[in-house]
Amino acid sequence: MTHTSNNQTNGHIPVMLTEVLAALAPRVGGTYLDATFGGGRYSRAILDAAACTVWAIDRDPEAIARGAALAACYPGRLHLLHGAFADMVTLLAAHGVTALDGIVFDLGVSSFQLDDAARGFSFRHDGPLDMRMARTGPTAADLVRSLSEHELADTLFEFGGERASRRVAKAIVAARAEAPITTTGRLAEIIRSVLPPDRSGHHPATRSFQALRIRVNDEIGQIETALAAAAALLAPPSVQNPGGRLVVVSFHSLEDRPVKQFMTEAAGRTPAPSRHNPASLLARPGSIFRLLGTGAAKPGSAEIAANPRARSARLRAMERLPAHAGIGQAAL
Hints:
Elements: H1 17-24, E1 31-34, H2 41-49, E2 53-58, H3 61-73, E3 78-82, H4 88-93, E4 102-106, H5 111-114, H6 140-146, H7 149-160, H8 165-178, H9 184-194, H10 206-216, H11 219-233, E5 245-250, H12 253-266, E6 289-291, H13 301-306, E7 314-320
Parallel strand pairs: 1-2, 1-4, 2-3, 4-5
Antiparallel strand pairs: 5-7, 6-7
Helix pairs in contact: 7-8, 7-10, 8-9, 11-12
């Protein structure tokens, strides 16, 4: 899902697009997955880079509806699938797709969602306290109403890094006793009333809104499941084709941490156990993946100047190796 500003006609600036395409390396005849379709700019760029096929997933029905016009521009080449990216194996198998030459994730909330007051993602626009990407299941208002003060505090700290989580949770519980909290404006005002202005210039409600959104959509759980599914779908290299590639763009440490851990382990780059640990006597399994690049790539200063929302982006990528390159990772 793209994080963008609104200075383009369609409101979308794909983050680190040049780097994504370089890592993905689309080729003629290849089959690719845009796991977070959003506004479709990654899909369009992949399709323009090579005469290939792109499957695109989004759990937001509005994103799929918007994508119909783009799919019409690439008849037979762009296919849209409504669902969660954690279910990619099932969604693709229903159409006979069992292996991919590349997969790209653009994690987090999309600007279409963020900038639509009716979706309830942002404290900058007063609207219903919703935050559901898929339009199904409990809303943020449901969580704010039903979680205990302790559960609220834990959620704000774990998913938002809110150091004053107990103070915020206490204020929310006191306010909801007076009247239900059903709008983004009221929740933002409650948080602002107990937190001083942030020295960074960020709104005091930023971390709390992030935390509620992540919990409402089970974003971290979805990412962890989807990474394993993606690795299982990457095609091994053949005489004609290189191995499949996985490219992930994340926007904060909660997203980046599981990506880094998964790719590091998949590539067999975990530290060897201590010689005093009995596990050191066991042969370490080989790997059928390799990391592309060292560490996470970051956007350049020019991109950040043009699109400030790109400033926190991090890109990680890995490539599938031949099956004989190692044993023990094939189940990924």
